[in-house]
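User: For my dataset I need records formatted as: sequence, then structure tokens, nothing else. Please produce one.
Assistant:
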Amino acid sequence: MRGLNDEAGNFKARPVGVVDSKTGRIIHFGTLPDYVPRAVSNLLDWAKTTDVHMLIKSSVFHYEFELIHPFSDGNGRMGRLWHTLMLSKWNPLFSWLPVESIIHDRQSEYYEIINDCNNSGSSTEFIVFMLDVIKNVLRENEMSEKVSEIMSELEKDRLEEIKSYLSKHRSITSKEVVNLLDISERTAQRLLKKAERMGLIKSKGSTKNKYYYII
């Protein structure tokens, strides 16, 4: 950021938000300057001590970094740089597959999902998005099997929770899935459609009033 920003190398000195370039609407308002040093320190401490898988850890770190928004500019590229760094420490292959380039073709979706996660208060959808991006890039590589396994487990757990809910209730809607799993409406609808394709549930009703039930 040197030469691009007068505050390069320092945490932001004033509140900074992410603005939608098309609408001018503020998408996200980062952590207030006084709290940034402690928030970043806590995030780094968590990254050092957590034992979650690196694919998950790097995605959570990436999202939380963007949530804090510690700098006056360049937060997106720094978050993606950290993501790449963490993955490359786990497997050197990622030194040649930087996250910055991986998500370039899905940049609009990237920002939409960060916004969805901000609204829901959960980073789950962002984690799934990043795992999907990485899997697509590595689909012809042996590492894709590991990524697929983690994604399958996340999705399997969600479907089990929906089935468990339906064992006690007659039906479920996408809004109820949002509350049950703490995910966005879009992710809930995707899960329900997949469960229906798999033959686990059936749907009834119009688009706005659709509900799902066990066969």
